[in-house]
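Following the same procedure, sequence and fold were stored together, as reproduced here:

>
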Amino acid sequence: MTTANAPVLHPDLTPAQRDCLDALPLTGNHVVSGPPGSGKSLLTAHRAVHLALTGHPTLLLSRSNLLRQLLQGMLDGLSIPGAPVEAATVHSWIQRRFGHDAPRTEDGWFDWTALTHRAAATLGEKDSTTPHLVVDEGQDLSPGFYRLARIAAASVTVFADECQRLTETNSTLTEITDALGRSTGRVEIAGNHRNTREIASLAEHFRTGGPRPDLPFRSGPRPEVRHYSGEKDIADDIAARAGRLPRHRIGVIVNSLRTAAELMRRLERAGLADEPQLYSSAAGSGRYRDLDLARPGVVLVHRASAKGLDFDTVVIPDTETDAGTDPTAATLRMAYYVMITRARERLVLGWQGSGLPRQLAGLGGWVESR
């Protein structure tokens, strides 16, 4: 099985998702685009397992370590004997491939031009150890990374949504395709299987471009805009929601690790049925680095780490921190588009202070105000 399309190995996909996999040959470079909730992360795991069946080592890459943990959990559930595949961060793959002294630029990120020259020096040496690369949230990586991957990998498959470009090293779909080469295939996947119609409708208010996706049929409560008197009020509200919804995974997405730490301190004292979790990218290992994203309970994450995740309930408690930003700015709208679309069932947009943040004004019939 080297050039034919990959078989559908698992039945837990929608017809559109199966069609997406069927459209991807096992050779060549490909870019798959789709809106939040279309199942891109799930498809990256299926795609990686399919490619691993060719006998080449296969890596499922992400920029975020927290997303890597989620993807590894998906791979563990799809594992097939004899077809090893693992999830890794781009950072760890680069260090594995080029060493811990891989050249960097002044901003601390990798020097893609220098690494591409290194890879080009061994261009004729691709063998059975050259990996297939599957990339989730591919819009978060620069064109330079894709020019390197084009040379250093057996094939590259990228899943991306350019309306979710939050990093300083991002790419549009066109930039990714151009960097991977003229023969790169393009596939689109539609549908939103995550959000309710009410949550997806609110997210549309913040979307920055691209074709308007179809709204989900599934309905639920309207998102809330809630005024908080302080961090104690926020923690009390989160604890109460965890008590009312004991089976829910509640994601608290904040704009400051200081806020996350303070809420964590209060929630730890609240006697929750499930111990709250906090993710910090600064932690090298242990409790604040390795999370169980599958179990119920509260997870506190910074906005920068929320990409690719989903929760039954999402609370964004500190929207007042954006009050000084132009509410029409693309970066702000993308941030809210990403955060809002993490919610499966319920969504809370919280704020403190004396005046409603400008980006929450005019939401009208999309939300309930409390």
